[in-house]
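User: Hi! I'm working on a homework problem where we have to compare a predicted structure to a textbook description. Could you give me the structure for the chain below?
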Amino acid sequence: MDILTFINNGMQNPVLDTAVPIIYNLTSIYSIPVFLLIILIISWVLKMEKIRNIMLICLLAFFFNDVITLFLKVVYVSPRPYVVLSNIRMVVQDHGLNSFPSGHTSISFSVISVVLMKAKEHRLILGILAVIYLAILEFSLLYSGVHYPTDLIGGAIIGIVSAAVAIFFSDRFIGFVDNAVGFFKK
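Assistant: Happy to help. Predicted structure tokens:
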């Protein structure tokens, strides 16, 4: 029995059937940007510059991630497990796009990667929370029957690459803006 079938069928129970759709919706490509924007607004109002900058980079990573993920979902045809396999039960309402890569995974990895790479304080605690969050997310995606394990791996890679690209561009752009502002202040 493969891991997808084991988690989707072998661990079936009413508690998970109720919890997994909630997790699926809270971690979607629609929910995460809203959370980021709320944190961004709060950090702007409270003048928390470091958190504000991290949230801006997260939104940039989200943009890169979304472009790559949607491109791959359109170009690479990979039907979802519940469409191909008769023994997979669907627990959530599906969006209908192809299975590879997992958008939930790529978005989560992009945001978490930015936070872990840019946040110097409390990195251990943030890392532990990230591992717990990602374990719950990945389990729920397999349990729901909408992704193969390879979709999750592909999503993780895309998320990490998106975060690295966003950090690269933000470091170059922020440095350029800081130098330009400093030049004109002289």
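For your comparison, note the following. Confidence is low (pLDDT under 50) at residues 180-186. The two ends are 69 Å apart (CA to CA). Good luck with the assignment!
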